[in-house]
Design brief:
- The complex is a heterodimer of chains A (138) and B (84).
- Chain A has 138 residues and is mostly loops.
- Chain A is built from one helix and two strands.
- Chain A has a two-stranded antiparallel ribbon.
- By secondary structure, chain B is mainly alpha-helical.
- Chain B is built from two helices and no strands.
- Classes of the chains: A little secondary structure (138), B mainly alpha (84).
- At the A-B interface, helix 1 of A face helix 1 and helix 2 of B.
Chain lengths: 138, 84
Amino acid sequence: MSKCKQQYYGKCAGNRPSQCGCEKDMGCPGMVPPPMPMTECGCKRRMAGMYDMSSDGRGYWPNMGMAGTSDCYDRDYRRKDGCDKKRCYVNNNMPDFALAMAYVPWQPFQNIFEDEEAFQEGTIFADLNLEYCGRRCD
Amino acid sequence: MDKQRRCLINRISEVSFVMDDLRLFLDTHPCDQDALCMYREYSMMRAELVAQYTCMYGPINQCGVCECDEWDWTQYPWPWEGEC
């Protein structure tokens, strides 16, 4: 099978035929995920965790990965299970992506911490030093 | 533990940690020249630091034990003696 070197940009879904000009099904080689979703409340902080969909079709970051500025907590988002915690939710901007697939962007070698800070933070990569602001819905 | 010794062991810990994280990155990016270059640099840096520490305070681990005429691994204070 020939290798398709052209990258997909949010157009690949599972093993459907390649959209990059290759004749054979290539799966999703080199697929580049879309930018991190932004919250409706204007939160621009990067968020660690798992992106999910709520029952009404809106995407959100569940409690394990909910993070962001305090603005995120100003919106009240009630879930079906009765949880009335204020949630930080975002629009689904991944409509072209297959469901139940995990995406791990290729990490570039950049933004390296100074040694002392790396040792303190537990990583040499500033890009991986994500703030954990998740909390249990109770 | 005197200040210089603590400073040296802290520096070795920092450099060792950087090498650990670089190793993880290189496991998935084996051809990344920038990461390789940094790993080589830190590898040399760590070797120098460990040599300096070993010379002044004794071996850090069994690999640094002097193999001359005496097994010196047990000749220095143990951790529970509060000096290392």
